[in-house]
């Protein structure tokens, strides 16, 4: 069934322009794995723990999963929330949904009740595919909590062992499998899946991506990053992140006929051991992770001689750390600056060293239009910082259900919320964010969302969440709490967890006061308030109660 009540994702004139330029083709995700298997069938596609699969084996697993989903009633145009860790189950689930013309909604393993209920309500998802236990957390219990909140909730499908009362991803009996359902033929310009914004306004917004626009970014990313059949990519970050999926990510590596090695363990000893054991050529990290690897490299016995490229993205990578990558890890650094809404920038293999260590790259496409504007919306002089707006062949024109229309200009430019400078070469340097949100090692936290949860506590009168600079994560969060009867920090944390707040959003530090330190200011915007509190904290690191 086809119940896409969404209007066209791109205006007709741009569809024509991007097709004429050859960016958009007739390729779709329904055909992706089949066409790659035609070219690279016997090559190794996926490695995870003791599991190894060729392209042909991955395709067979995908087709049997598609058959399973069809038997469970999942069909064309249906939304299915996928919340799976870095395992082959993720790949076969997603490709099976594409086979049927169903639409994955990519959730992160860190998402909790607040996010999942929001995604289900926004998409009327027919199913949630998740895992049993992951990193000590029981996703089946999370599913129960979600279903308790949504009367007509989705079917819950559990990958791996012990589905308990839920539907197992793999049918118990493998008798009488029946035929593989026919492969869907979606229109390349239509909605292929929904991704999450790393955005700043509370729950993530849903990002509609089409087959044509996303596959263009995957193919071009694979080309820019020089991937080929000899690529062996180690995937450490959550596989459903836009960075990990397409920049060039697992999809880029598979498109090129390379091998994807999946792991859920980002610790340096495990990562370095895998790099050696699996002859890894490329991997990607967010800055805090990259910095940990750099720090611990001298203490770990590993050769890393096959590693050619370390990609770093998700947040600003300090130039001092960037300069250490090649001397310490013996590989090339590639900086990546992108967003799930579209625009992705890379430093290129041929870029000089100062560009690689000091910038966040330049756009994928000659048709990526970049505007850098001041607060009044005027273009800034070249090299001056300003608000980044962008439009192009793989940048969305609106969010799903038109959430946050203010994020787009009338002529279709996306307001990224980033403050950047542009060099004459076209390379961008990210200076920061213009919105009230905290970038904690690549995870974006909305101050407003956490404040609303804090203020719900009976003993908290008011609260402000502010960013405090942190050498390791870039920024940490500090909750400034106004209370006449301050609850213990442990109780506040428990309260936030009970309210379903994802772990990475919990404040790192707490300050207690009877009023905000704003003498003689009277009313003040929350944005200005947060700025003042941050200034106060930065002047004095010794006050208040800090987290152990």
UniProtKB/TrEMBL annotation:
One of its GO terms (biological process) is fatty acid metabolic process. InterPro entries: AMP-bd_C, AMP-bd_C_sf, AMP-binding_CS, AMP-dep_synth/lig_dom. SUPFAM superfamilies: Acetyl-CoA synthetase-like. Gene3D superfamilies: 3.30.300.30, 3.40.50.980, Luciferase, Domain 3. Residues 38-400 form the AMP-dependent synthetase/ligase domain. Residues 449-523 form the AMP-binding enzyme C-terminal domain. Signal peptide: none annotated. GO terms for molecular function: medium-chain fatty acid-CoA ligase activity. The keyword ATP-binding does not apply. Transmembrane segments: none annotated. Keywords: Ligase. Belongs to the ATP-dependent AMP-binding enzyme family. This is AMP-binding protein. It comes from Corynebacterium meridianum.
């Amino acid at each position: 069934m086809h119940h896409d009540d969404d209007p066209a994702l791109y205006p007709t004139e741009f569809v024509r322009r991007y097709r004429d330029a050859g960016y958009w083709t007739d390729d779709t995700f329904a055909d992706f794995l089949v066409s790659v298997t035609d070219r690279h069938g016997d090559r190794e596609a996926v490695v995870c723990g003791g599991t190894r699969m060729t392209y042909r084996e991955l395709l067979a697993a995908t087709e049997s999963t598609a058959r399973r989903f069809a038997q469970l009633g999942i069909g064309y145009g249906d939304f299915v929330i996928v919340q799976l860790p870095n395992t082959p189950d993720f790949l076969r689930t997603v490709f099976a949904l594409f086979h049927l013309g169903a639409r994955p909604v990519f959730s992160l393993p860190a998402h909790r009740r607040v996010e999942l209920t929001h995604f289900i309500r926004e998409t009327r998802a027919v199913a949630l595919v998740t895992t049993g236990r992951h990193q000590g957390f029981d996703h089946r219990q999370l599913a129960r909590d979600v279903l308790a909140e949504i009367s007509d909730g989705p079917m819950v499908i559990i990958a791996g062992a012990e589905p308990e009362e839920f539907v197992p991803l793999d049918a118990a009996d493998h008798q009488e499998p029946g035929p593989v359902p026919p492969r869907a033929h979606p229109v390349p310009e239509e909605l292929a899946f929904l991704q999450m914004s790393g955005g700043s306004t509370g729950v993530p917004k849903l990002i509609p991506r089409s087959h044509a626009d996303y596959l263009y970014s995957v193919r071009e990313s694979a080309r820019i990053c020089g991937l080929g059949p000899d690529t062996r990519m180690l995937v450490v970050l959550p596989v459903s992140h836009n960075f990990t999926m397409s920049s060039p990510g697992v999809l880029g590596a598979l498109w090129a006929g390379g091998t994807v090695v999946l792991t859920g363990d980002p610790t340096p000893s495990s990562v370095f051991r895998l790099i050696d054991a699996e002859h890894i050529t490329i991997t990607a990290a967010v800055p805090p992770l990259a910095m940990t690897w750099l720090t611990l490299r001298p203490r770990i016995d590993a050769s890393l001689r096959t590693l050619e490229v370390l990609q770093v993205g998700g947040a600003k990578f300090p130039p001092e750390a960037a300069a250490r990558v090649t001397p310490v890890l013996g590989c090339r650094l590639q900086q990546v600056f992108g967003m799930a809404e579209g625009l992705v920038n890379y430093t290129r293999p041929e870029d000089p060293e100062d560009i690689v260590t000091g910038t966040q790259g330049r756009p994928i496409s000659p048709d990526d239009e970049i505007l850098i504007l001041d607060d009044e919306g005027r273009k800034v002089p070249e090299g001056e910082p300003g608000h980044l707006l962008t439009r192009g062949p793989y940048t969305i024109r609106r969010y799903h259900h038109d959430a946050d229309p203010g994020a787009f200009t009338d002529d279709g430019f996306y307001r990224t919320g980033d403050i950047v400078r542009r060099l004459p070469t076209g390379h961008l340097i990210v200076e920061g964010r213009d919105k009230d949100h905290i970038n904690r090692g690549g995870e974006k936290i909305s101050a407003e969302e956490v404040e609303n949860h804090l203020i719900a506590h009976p003993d908290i009168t008011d609260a402000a969440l502010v960013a405090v600079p942190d050498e390791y994560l870039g920024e940490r969060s500090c909750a400034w709490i106004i209370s006449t009867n301050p609850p213990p920090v442990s109780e506040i944390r428990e309260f936030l967890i009970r309210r379903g707040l994802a772990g990475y959003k919990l404040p790192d530090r707490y300050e207690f006061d009877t009023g905000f330190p704003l003498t003689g200011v009277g009313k003040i915007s929350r944005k200005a308030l947060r700025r003042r509190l941050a200034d106060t904290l930065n002047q004095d690191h010794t006050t208040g109660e800090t987290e152990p």
